[in-house]
Structure formats: C-alpha cells, structure tokens
Amino acid sequence: MPAPEVRPFRRADRDQLTDLVNLHVAAVAPGVSVSVNTVLSDLERQPGEFITDPWVAERTTLVAEQRAHIVAAAHLLRYRADAGVGEAYRDAAEIDWFVHRPAASLWPDADRAADRLMRACLAQFARWNVRVRYADGSLPAPLVYGVPRPWPHVRAVYERAGFRHVGDTEVILIARVADLPVHEPRPGVTVERTLGECGTRFTARADGHALGFIEVGTALARPERHARAAGLADIGNLHIDPEQYGTGLEHRLLAHAADWLRLCGIDRLVAYEEAAATDMLGLLTGAGFRELTRTDRGWEHRPG
C-alpha cells in the first residue's frame, strides 16, 4: 500500500472531509450531521466562538491522503501574541480538531497516516514558534468538543504525540422530552418565561423571590450552516437555590421547559456537567436524563 501523503486541504477534498467529520460526529451525537457548507465555513471562521475566534491570527487545515482517499485531517489555529488576547491563548497554537479513520481491514495503515499527519501538525507549530501547544476535538456540530470517549483512536494519536489531558472531564447527558417530569402545580410558586443568557429562561418565584431557573437553547445548529440537529435542544443554565434542594423544584422547572420544547417540536434535551458535580448529575439522572458520553477537555503538548 502506498505511503499516505500529507498536504494542505484543497477545496476538492470537501466532500470526503465532510464524510470523515460526520463519521466522528455520529459516534458522539445521535442523529446529528453537518453539511459541506458547515465544514467549509468552520475552516474560515467560527462565529459561535465569539470570544476566542477574533484572537485567531492564522488557520490551516492539513489532510492525509492515501489511494485518493482522505483518511485523516486536522485543523490548526494560531492565536495572536498581543495584549488583546486572553492570557491562556496568547501566543498559543491549537489543534482545533483531528479526525482519522481507525485501523481496520480496509485501512490497515490508518494509524500510520494519523501519526504522519500529527508530525506535520507539530512541525507547523514549530514553524509558528508559539509559547504553548493545545489540542481539542471541537468539530462544527453540537455536543462534539474535547476528546469524547467514543474516539479512543484520536486519544491514542494525541497521547503518542505527547499531548496530555490537563483539564476537566465533562459528562454529556440526554433525555427524551417525553420522559421529563410532568407539570404539577405547586401552591405559592409561579414560573415565568423570559429571555435568558443562554436561551429561553423559566424562573420559579415565590413571594417575589427567585427560587431557581432553567434556560434551554433550541438553536444548537445555525440554520444557514445546515447542520442536521432537528429535535435537539440543550440546557444552557440550571440554577436552584440551595435551600430548595429536595423540594422537587428542579422537576417543576424541567416540566415547564418540556412543555415549551414540545411546542417547539423538540424531542431530546441535552445537559452538560463536570464529572465532579455529583449532586447535579444525580439531580439530572433522577429527572429522566441518562449519560450519553464523557469528554476530556484541555489537552496540552507535554512530550517526555
């Protein structure tokens, strides 16, 4: 079998690259896929990353090709070194995402291609002469960030290259809206709907005081980018006054959110929590959520 060729991405690669991206998305997010337009747009800018994207000074995408097939790809970012960039990102470079076909009978040299592509990524970092090197797996699709557990082949490439997980682990949970709590009136407690920071907010109040709130976002996919994520929403914020723990307030908020989501045609709701947040994880699983996957955020190049 011919050795894989590592080269810059060309527009003619767009369909094969999108197929490879969608293979990785499908292993994490049920029923989600992205279009060619979404992938190409992501290579140029990431409007959803409204804090960090303006800090990017340079972007490059590399692919590994074998027998006229794209078997691996990586998208690299270099951040500016000026004072206008956040300290952690200042003069940094990042593998924004890295995808490759796992080794199989059809692609027995897939690991070799991935390692060769990784060497090219590190060589680009060396040419950029940056202060620190990061890695992630933030594909342009809902729920896909960090290094998700369904990607052991990507994790292995990162670890062989000297990247280490130095950040947090997050749990991604999912529930069918039909399985969420049913609305039951509670004397003295009202729930109002307003615009929140991360979506539509439902706030429970009693005697003029806020007891807690939940925010749900129904725009996980930017319509103009044509990501297939219909029927999917997420919890952007969930806050319960500690004095209300054990009163079932979270079930009441989720019930109001569920009523709203059904009107929106949403049938699945996603939540994110740090693995260490055992109380909140217990609250969510007790309300109808189940663990979808875990993802490890924060990878840094620390060879040796």
UniProtKB/TrEMBL annotation:
Enzyme Commission numbers on file: 2.3.1.-
UniProt key word Transcription: no
N-acetyltransferase domain ranges (all copies): 199-275
Any one GO molecular function term: acyltransferase activity
Pfam family, one: Acetyltransf_1
UniProt keyword Transferase, yes or no: yes
InterPro entries associated with the record: Acyl_CoA_acyltransferase, GNAT_dom
Alphabetical keyword list: Acyltransferase, Transferase
The name this protein goes by in its record: GNAT family N-acetyltransferase
